[in-house]
Amino acid sequence: MPETVRWRKSSHSHNNSQQQCVEVAAVAHAIGIRDSENPAGPRLAVSRAAFRSLVERVKAGDLN
Fold first, then answer.
1. Domain parsing of the chain, residue ranges
2. What is the per-residue burial (b if ≥16 Cβ within 10 Å, else e) of 39-53?
3. How far apart are CA 45 and CA 3, in angstroms?
4. What distance in Å separates the CA atoms of residue 64 and residue 6, rounded to the nearest whole number?
5. Are the C-beta atoms of 19 and 3 separated by less than 8 Å?
6. What predicted TM-score, i.e. pTM, was given to this entire model?
7. How do residues 33-47 score in pLDDT, each as one tens digit?
8. In whole numbers, what is the pLDDT of the chain averaged over residues?
9. Burial status of residue 30 (CB atoms within 10 A of its CB: 0-12, 13-18, 19 or more)
10. Roughly how many angstroms between the first and final C-alpha of the chain, as a whole number?
11. Which domain of life is it from (predicted)?
12. I need a surface site. Which of 2, 9, 27, 43 has the fewest CB within 10 A?
């Protein structure tokens, strides 16, 4: 994943709390995902369709 991507956290994350937060970035034809507590650590890239499906399932409460 390029080092120049712009990572962002959800607007639902608390500004002063880093716990259990992920950051996402648009990368070519994928979405990059990383742990906000370990930005230099492993990163995952998933298709936009897979990310959209994940977000929909989270919103629906399917992954609780």
1. 8-60
2. eeeebebeeeeebee
3. 14
4. 29
5. no
6. 0.76
7. 999 889 899 999 999
8. 86
9. middle
10. 30
11. Bacteria
12. 2
